[in-house]
Amino acid sequence: MLNQNAEKGGAASADSLRSMLSQYAGLDISAAPSGRGLEARYRKLGDVSHLCLKGALASDALAVRAKTYTLLLSGSGELGFERSGSIETLAAGQAVLLSPGERAELSFSASEICYFVSFGRESMNRVLAEMDILASVVSLSIEKGVVAFGESSDIGRYIDALMSRADQGEFDKISVHYNAIIGMLILESFVSHKNRLNDTGSGEYVGSIKEYISKNITSDLSVEALADYIGVSDRQIYTIFGDLYGMTPGQYFKQVRVYAAHKEISNCSTRENITNLAFKYGFSNPGRFSQQYKEYFGELPSQTMRKRLTGSALR
Questions:
Q1: Of 193, 215, 246, the domain-final residue
Q2: Boundary-marking domain end, from 165, 193, 221
Q3: Which CATH number covers residue 225?
Q4: Separation of CA 57 from chain center
């Protein structure tokens, strides 16, 4: 295995390169060429992985298949990239995003520095929550083109800074915030979102629905009370929620409560424990609340709180 921050790397075996790209870049490769003078740095925080490769690989193109969402960022030199028959040359500061299951071919130049960031949908949900977006009620679209961050891109500097703190532990204060900023930069550049409104006219009820939920988020939320609040029948409520959110009112209430709990757990001023917060937001079974929370955010509420406590000095 290549050593992290190796000053002078020898040729990497095909197996070590394959393992590194799988573990830290979320990429499967059919055949791995040997590296020549290849230096690698890497860092994993929860379900987000970062990898930087510096130096030359063999001139053969590297065929990859993404297992996760994977950002490919050219740090210097030129990175050849081919996807679905479209061939691009990524200059320094340019990047592309692969979605799970996508295939591509990469070709490295001799002086290339290449960054990889690998993350799953749960990580995307957490970043969207930081941006006050409830992922389950918006339609997400992934940008398939090349995005230019600039030659001295912020995202490359944040990845370098994050990896330089590898000996600080998984959830040290600064690394957690670097990780969040990197996620936001990726989503702002590659992921567009819009509400799932259609032409049925249900959009006129969005404001009233949000107002009702905001007033009652820590008390009772019921279909009957909401129907009365916005002036429609109980049956109409189900149609409206299907149009707007693609789910039943009960499913939406549950997700909004989990989202609200996440926001409070992430807030450095919160002093309540997880059990009390579960009860506060209408969950009678704290264990079930933790399970639903993990299904949506990819981590337990206790893990979110741990990150917040270790990083509270910067909030």
A1: 193
A2: 193
A3: 1.10.10.60
A4: 29
User: How do residues 16-57 score in pLDDT, each as one tens digit?
Assistant: 777 888 888 888 877 655 555 677 888 888 789 998 888 765
Residue 8 forms part of a structural domain: no
The span from the CA of 38 to the CA of 1, in Å, is: 11
State the greatest distance between any 2 C-alpha atoms of the chain, in Å, as a whole number: 72
- Residues sharing a CB contact under 8 Å with residue 263, sequence separation 6 or more, in sequence order: 129
Check which CATH number belongs to the domain holding 31 and give it. Answer: 2.60.120.280
pTM score > 0.90 for this model?
no
d(CA 135, CA 221): 21
Q: How far apart are CA 257 and CA 219, in angstroms?
A: 10
- Whether residue 210 sits in one domain with residue 166: no
pLDDT in tens, 215-272: 999 988 999 999 999 999 999 999 998 888 888 999 899 989 998 898 888 876 667 7
Instruction: Say yes or no to pLDDT of 79 above 70.
Output: yes
- In angstroms, the CA 127 to CA 184 distance is 6
Terminal C-alpha separation, the chain: 37
The answer as to whether 6 is a domain residue is no
User: Would you state the pLDDT for residue 29?
Assistant: 78
pLDDT band at 2 (very low <50, low <70, confident <90, very high): very low
In sequence order, what are the residues at sequence separation of 6 or more whose Cβ sits closer than 8 angstroms to the Cβ of residue 153? 73, 93
Check residue 225 and give its pLDDT.
94
- Residue 2 placed within a domain: no
Residues 205 and 217: their CA atoms lie apart, in Å, by: 18
